[in-house]
Batch of 2 targets.
Target 1
Amino acid sequence: MKKGEFNLRGMAVVSPLAREVHRRERSSCDVPNCRRSTCEQKPYCSEHIQFMPKVSSILAELQSRAAELELVERHPARATAESGHAQEILMRLEAAEGVTVERLASDARIYVAAVRAFIRALKRAKQVRTRKSTRGKTVVSLCR
Ligand SMILES: [Zn+2]
């Protein structure tokens, strides 16, 4: 037995370097009282991943989108051209010239009534225009 490897009680003494390596490989979650370990040096365990700054901003974004949609489904007049859904519709129209309301709704997975509300807001903001197709469908395109 080499001197310094064991303490007086016979327990292995871990060198500061070895302890540091261990800490980096298996750090524990930063949430107080959570004893789960994390992988790949992430600060939080899989149960507390919502505390990661990037994840929490995405969740906040999704929550505000969901809240916005709920509001517009109840009060269509409150749809705004600045909302995330309206901006998404504009992006969709950037990619294709003339898209039906039904198509926009199925692409965005939101109700046709909600799309109509956002389209009305975008029309008020003079960002889109609509026309009727020969089949009587409302076709939306960007105002260029
Ligand atoms: Zn945790």
Note: The CA atoms of residues 77 and 117 lie 7 Å apart.
Target 2
Amino acid sequence: METYYLACAYVLAGVLGLCVGSFLNVLIYRLPRGMNIAKPPSHCPACGYRLKWYDNIPVLSYCILRGRCRNCGGHISFRYTAVELLNCGLWLACVAAFWRYGIGYTVVCALALSALVVEFFADLETMTVPDSMTIGVALCGAAALVLEVFGLGAGISWQDRLWGALAGGGFFALFYGGSLLVLRREGLGFGDVKLMAAAGLLLGWQNLIVSVLFASLAAVLVMGIGRAFVRPAHVSENAQKSDDLTQGNVTDASAQADISQNVSENAENSAAPAQANVFASPAQADVTDTPAQTGTSEAIPENADGCVEKEKKFEFPFVPFLASGIALALFFGTAICTWYMGLFA
Ligand SMILES: [Zn+2]
């Protein structure tokens, strides 16, 4: 009987994971742009063709249409399918890892991971962290805390979770405030601060530390590899763009659009999207919260010597690293902490 329930859980998680993944694509595109998430219905960005239900089946439609719009033949980004598959994989992993704690905890973790997927791609593509998704993570954390009180959680006490929220928010707020004071600019976005407070609630303070370690390690690795291999091509590209700007024939907004298009192209072509984006994104980027700001403010280097400017103002989206770290810590944090404590026992 147990096996029967588990099998059902896997099937449900797989199918629902794909469908929710499809909806996450809508959120990733619309939330940072302040658009309504229900209206208008899904349509082809190129020709406006309104997608029928059979054009919207996760993964399957993409394969049948071979990545092209049914109406205009325009290219459909593989990113959409990738997000569906990623979410499906995460939900299946949740059943594998958390089913033994009960269905409640499994669902809570699955939903939190989906919110993190949205934050990952939204920040990667628009340097914006949707607050609603951070609130989602926090609510999942609160739900996990309540489950814990009733003995239905993963054994991370509610005290540890509260300390996690305080530590996550507090540490990153200090870092945020410190860099404002000392460097006179934002070392990270305030969106990161809120996200880490929410993550603390979800993970507990022990696993929160693991997540920050993961995130920092990943950031250092990706930036290191990026600096070694990716840099030259993108620098000249950026220099080219800033030339265009100084000639005054491109408005700020269109240049931004141009670049973000460039970013998403890079993201889908590259095996490591985070890395591509790091170097393609202009120095636009302290902004994490308000989409409006992204379009209007900040510093694409205006002198022809874009490389130097870029060197000084090296900005990159940090949330993809944080989100990955949080996800890894959710799955492996407790095992890692136990192993680590065992070293001193
Ligand atoms: Zn079309």
Note: The pocket of zinc ion is lined by residues 44, 46-47, 49, 69, 71-72, 74 (CB under 6 Å).
